[in-house]
Fold this sequence. Notes:
Elements: E1 3-4, H1 12-23, H2 27-35, E2 44-45
Antiparallel strand pairs: 1-2
Amino acid sequence: xxxxxxxxxxxxxxxxxxxxxxxxxxxxxxxxxxxxxxxxxxxxxxxxxxx
Length: 51
């Protein structure tokens, strides 16, 4: 799983929980979630898989 700088310290279980919560969210909730992250910390961390 490719992680960002913001999620590099999260376990895969935590990431799956976030994905599950967002799957049932409406656009406003997803927009609020996106805005909660600092854009400067959204670069990839580690190996570049699938590119």
